[in-house]
């Protein structure tokens, strides 16, 4: 998943669910990273190079059993670290403090 160029950003998603495999499907306008099964305690990570025209945006859909979350995992120009922790009540990110980014929904 990594490109051999100067790195602009990266995204890390770690599964902290209670005994559940997490399905992670992330994409940008130009790249569909596909669906990945992430075991409890495991992490998925990718990095990417600069977009010459700006506007790099990665969004992810997460699924576990009958629950879903969709969220922006990285947006160029928005101060975030692209580091996410998935818990039973939702997805948490870090910046200067931990915050709840999105809660689980049922389809």
Automatic annotation (TrEMBL):
In terms of superkingdom, the source organism counts as Eukaryota
Recorded protein name is S-protein homolog
Q: Which residues form a coiled coil?
A: none
One Gene Ontology cellular component annotation held by this UniProt entry = extracellular region
Q: Which UniProt keywords apply?
A: Secreted, Self-incompatibility, Signal
Q: Which GO terms describe its biological process?
A: rejection of self pollen
Check the record and name the InterPro entries matching this protein: Self-incomp_S1
Q: Which family does it belong to?
A: Belongs to the plant self-incompatibility (S1) protein family.
One Pfam family this sequence matches = Self-incomp_S1
PANTHER family, A to Z: PLANT SELF-INCOMPATIBILITY PROTEIN S1 FAMILY-RELATED, PTHR31232
What subcellular compartments does it reside in?
Answer: Secreted
């Amino acid at each position: 998943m990594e490109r051999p160029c100067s790195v602009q950003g990266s995204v890390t998603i770690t599964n902290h669910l209670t005994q559940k495999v997490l399905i992670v499907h992330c994409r940008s306008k130009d790249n569909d990273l596909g669906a990945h099964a992430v075991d409890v305690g495991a992490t998925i990570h990718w990095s990417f190079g600069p977009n010459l025209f700006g506007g790099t945006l990665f969004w992810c859909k997460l699924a576990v059993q009958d629950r879903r979350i969709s969220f922006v995992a990285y947006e160029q120009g928005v101060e975030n670290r692209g580091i996410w922790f998935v818990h039973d009540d939702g997805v948490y990110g870090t910046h200067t403090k931990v915050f709840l980014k999105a809660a689980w929904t049922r389809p």
